[in-house]
Amino acid sequence: MIDKKKKLVEVVFEKAKNELPNSSKTSIAFYLSTLFEEEYGFSKDGRTFVRYYKKLVEDNLDYTIDDITLDNMSLYSGYKNFNDFCNNYKKEPFVKKFGSINVAISESEEQHDNLSDKSSKVVVNITNAPVFNIPEFISKNKNSFGLMGILVAGGIFVSQKDNVAKEKQQVIAQQPIEEASKPNQTTAAPKSNSIVTVIEKEVNHIVQKVNQKKVSKKECMYWKLDHYVAVLCNEDISVNPLIAIDEELLRSFRKINKIDTLTVNNALGKVWYDKSNNHVEFFTNYGIHPENGKTLKPVSKHIIEKYINN
User: Source organism's superkingdom (predicted)?
Assistant: First the structure.
């Protein structure tokens, strides 16, 4: 039974995620809560759906779900009820990736007569690792390459250069003595000191840039009219309180001012709202109302028809 409940929760969250792209687990849970209440007249709180997913899917533990919720979740997934889901849900092919090796194994219950039939269902693709040049790799990735990584890679690079220099020295030593002793002819082995100097300069340059970013990095933000603005945490902002920066909210959280552009087709699963003091405000993402601190709710057909179409 636990496997069926776990699979049902996975299917429900996956379907909701397709209807609510780029949303978190919590956003999907509250979306399901509102949707089930409108569609079936019965639902659980969004936090309950979060617990379903965490216990059954993430922790792989059994968790009690009442029969009505199981039937509603099954109905949402395209089945008549939970019994119909248990009897008719078909397993999908299992695909697992291990680095550059992709292994696909069918989980079909079809029986095979011999081993060759089974092995024909296994596909393995192996891709060779790319070959790259160390100096070029350091140059292109210096912004994200750790300091220790640069030193290690630099040591490998210097070691390679030293080996080349030794080989050249051996070639020079094998030349005829008379050629080596001719006047106005000097032969010097390549030195790796210049390479070390270049690496040291590059490391110092990167460390300097990192320190500058630490000083000037904007790690706080505040709400300004209809969007968040990133600022330094020591800035004096009197409009609204400063909070820790959230890249997702900074990028995608906006208050919708032209609400007459919202329709059932373009708003369901994409717009969130808050109703306070008989005033409704709409936002482009799930979260907390930036001014009153209330949790936003996913917009519904009823809300759009009542507060926008009228």
Answer: Bacteria
